[in-house]
Design a protein that fits this description.
mainly alpha
Length: about 150
């Protein structure tokens, strides 16, 4: 059986293996599907239904902390293969800890994306400067070629 499966298939697999879920348990994505999380056994975590329902798709840091570093590292790795571009395992866990200390996750995301945007702008400016310099060299080379052709 493939490790890529839906939550329902994961639940059935646990049932067949003798580890059924209790009525008050859900199979959750450590990295939410809406964040690019994979439908893979490495990205599933069994949690209380009330926790899963209360967190919704804002649960990545909290479930990452609950699952632990080893499982979250696996979840991040498999989810990167399906398009996840969010924080790594250690950063997710640290975000949950910071949230418990009173730093809202939205504020943490804002700071992270501000740093990313600043780096993206710097890269874009460097690329523009590099393209301008390359064009100048190419034009200079064409000018030397034309001068040589006239002689």
């Amino acid at each position: 059986m493939s490790d890529w499966m839906s939550r329902a298939q994961f639940r059935d697999m646990r049932q067949r293996a003798g580890f059924p879920l209790n009525a008050d348990q859900h199979v959750c994505h450590i990295i939410a599907e809406s964040s690019g999380g994979a439908n893979h056994i490495d990205n599933y975590y069994v949690a209380a239904a009330s926790l899963n329902q209360s967190l919704g798709n804002r649960s990545d840091p909290y479930l990452a902390e609950a699952a632990g570093l080893e499982q979250t590292t696996k979840a991040v790795a498999v989810s990167r293969r399906t398009g996840y571009t969010g924080p790594g395992a250690e950063e997710l866990i640290e975000m949950a800890r910071a949230a418990r200390r009173g730093v809202p996750i939205q504020q943490q995301h804002a700071a992270r994306y501000a740093a990313w945007a600043q780096a993206a702008v710097a890269t874009a400016l460097y690329s523009q400067e590099a393209r301008a310099a390359r064009r100048a060299r190419e034009e200079a080379a064409r000018g030397r070629f034309r001068e040589g052709a006239r002689l």
